[in-house]
Amino acid sequence: MDRFEDTEIKYLKGIGEARAKLLASELQIVSFRDLLEYYPFRYVDRSKFYRIAEFQGEMPLIQVRGHFINFITEGEGRSQRLRGIFTDGERMVDVMWFAGIKKISEIYRTGVVYVLFGKPSIYSGNWQFVHPEIEKYDPERPPTGLQGVYSLTETMRKRGITQRVVQTAMRNLLAHPRFGQLAETLPEAIRSRYGFPGVQETFRALHFPEDATLLRKARERMKFEELFYLELQILRYARKRSRQLQGHMFGHIGDYFNRYYSECIPFELTGAQKRVLREIRADMRTGRQMNRLLQGDVGSGKTMVAFMSMLMSADNGFQSCLMAPTEILAGQHYETISAWGARIGLRTALLTGSTRAKERRLIHEGLLSGEIHIIVGTHALLEEKVEFSNLGLAVIDEQHRFGVAQRARMWSKGKIPPHVLVMTATPIPRTLAMTLYGDLDVSVIDELPPGRKPIETWLRYDGNRGEVNRHIWQQLREGRQIYIVYPLIKENEKLDLRSLEEGLERVRETFSGVEVSFVHGKMKPAEKEYQMQKFVEGKSRIMVATTVIEVGVNVPNATVMVIENAERFGLSQLHQLRGRVGRGADRSWCILMTKERIAAPTRKRLHIMTETTDGFLVSEADLKLRGPGDMEGTQQSGIAFNLRIANLATDGQIVQCARDTAEDVLSGNPVITGQTEVTEHRPSALPLDVDSLRILASELTRRFDHSVDWSLIS
Ligand code: ADP
Ligand code: MG
């Protein structure tokens, strides 16, 4: 007989074949466990009916009882909407629908008593509900406490799977005679550390919470459990790899490094740069492969750190490469690094997609013979034809454009993989970094070189254009350069391109006589390159562009960054854009333009930009507001998170607990890592018995399809 949780849902009372099929195709719910994990996405307080007169500020999800007086269709075509006037017998509230209008007007009638669930909101001074859930009022039904609301698809609704049906099925599942056999998924030692309820109690509270406290505990446990196994898996992987991967031993610091440092370096390193260099040095001399993420805000001086790490590589007789996400960036890095390297006799080359065949052949030869010490380039570096005499260090600039798969390809370039240094200017909050980049060690440059003037950030509306233009003129007269950036979002492409072109027209009119560069992602690379180069060389003074300039270009003479429709950018993206100015010693400005009427939360969000230039604060705020799914870097990170209940954005504290616990488990129970010899003799912070280890192994297998070698514990 199947284990209880593996039983197919068609055997559940209230489901049957047809509904089981539908649930499988709509929500991938197949087994009892899947159904248990189909958590309500919100809860309604069903202990009382609210009166419309009681509505105020921020309200939770509430229910109101009453009837519709009237339905009115308003507007035409795409902006058509349906307004229902609903009353509780005392006052009235508007109920708005913006979609599915025809069907709704067929379902609901005036005069029938309904219960409305939702969050009332205020629009133009009136209370309204937008697309609330509606049920016929059932006087027989006893008042309950919190009631879960499940997300239903349109198809489910059409085929009669309503909230009521799901609730009944769930009730039957929890009352199933074998429910008591549901296997525990979190070891007792861990549960008791945090006072978490057992698995059956947890599911009961999640689906039918008796009160808010029990619900909170149950949700915490499930969030923790989800994150704990994720962290455990990441840490196991990281440890296994760090034990396995042999690396080049860079035993000494020699002439290149010392001579450059004492005679050629153009500035004093910041304390943070020195610290990070020490961390890198320590890594590279262990004989194991370095895998390090170097985080540093825009302008913090990551390039010099990369270059000095390359000197350590050269001192030990090895070559280095630096890979950048775009040709322009690669070109800029090449300019910088070849000039620095030339002073101590290092040869640097540039290899990109547009390198000519003949040049390319020479470079291939130079790399193979070892004549070229440093190669800077784009993805072109990953081609098979590119072979090294002995690659010791690979630096990757701007992590988010390269996934884990590409890193792996870099490693295969030699018998012993090169050390890998990944640089990113996207400041990622700690809890997210350790989850996303759990397989990397992290160094942070948290200090800017001295003498930088902080960038002033203004929030301005269309009505302030006169003021903004005057400011731009004044900077142009002082010989400065200006960026003007427009959003370009895939779904909106046509519209966005139009507004970009209109913007360009306006700029040409307003600043007639000033040379303008124009760049967007749809352009031919050669044209883009030409326009960018013109700006980099100072031949054009204004750059009108979409976010293609977001990553890395360095034009220290640019002092104003105007961002149009700023409300459409995420904070981290705005921060990246802002980092394009303030690269010289001059005062600089970032001007966020929006239309006159923006919603209060949007204004609040943009306001954060005017208050801080600290990338970490910005990204924390961004993460809280938008969630990690939207954040730069998280999608391409190569780790598929499939979180059902936890939220990396808002559950930072739980992530931390999960991480700590996973570390304790691994340090005390090396068997979980699949380690054959026990090298750590620390007393365990969290001793686990054989049963607990079995739970961990079976959960890891189930969640990550990754089997653990159990021969070790029997
Ligand atoms: P990022 O970290 O954004 O890649 P860069 O490496 O491009 O930053 O550095 C930004 C600018 O700061 C460059 O012009 C660089 O030469 C300069 N710089 C780097 N480190 C220092 C320092 N310690 N003192 C002064 N200027 C520095
Ligand atoms: Mg850089």
Short description:
The chain has 714 residues and is α/β, with parallel strands linked by helices.
Task: Please tally the helical runs, counting DSSP H or I stretches of 4 or more residues.
Answer: 23
What proportion strand?
15-25%
Bound molecules: adenosine-5'-diphosphate, magnesium ion
Distance between the termini: 26 Å
Arithmetic mean pLDDT: 85
Largest sheet: 7 strands, mixed
What structural class do you assign from the helix and strand content?
alpha/beta
Q: How would you sum up the global shape?
A: globular
Query: Largest beta sheet: what is the strand line-up?
Result: 6-7-4-3-2-5-8
Fraction of helical residues: 25-40%
Number of DSSP strand runs: 22
Low-confidence stretches: 628-640, 673-681, 706-714
Over the alpha carbons, how many angstroms does the gyration radius reach?
30 Å
